[in-house]
Amino acid sequence: MVTKLILVGKTTDAHIQALTDDYISRLTHYAPLRVVVIPELKNAKSLSHDQQKHLEGEQILRQLQPSDRLVLLDERGAELSSTELAQWLGRHQVSSTPTLTFVICGPYGFSPEVYARANERLALSRLTFSHQMVRLIFVEQLYRAHTILRGEKYHH
To answer: Considering the entire predicted model, what is its pTM?
Structure first.
């Protein structure tokens, strides 16, 4: 199974990006990982929030294959513990899912078209985090899930 992570916009904080890159590097030891960064929209300030979501949604959908299992990181998604996330990931690894695609959207959320295409939604927390922090927290949790599945000492 290949894991794909689609991110809208770039991380501007060098410290957060360095930590995120470290976990992404660690993750590649467990499974193939492809990271796709969708560029920020030009002239976004002249667009309404709905227009931004629609345009970002079009770019997200272009990155998908019909066989991708699409999982949105969404505040209204299911909340799992780290162990539950590992079990969830393990189920997908043994299923016939060729590509498990996670998406972290821009600041205004997902378009209705992306929600319609999604297979699942996961929430990291009921707390609100910056999109840059969400990236770091999510890749760390994905790494943690892999170490749990392998019985490694990272997760206590």
So the answer is: 0.95
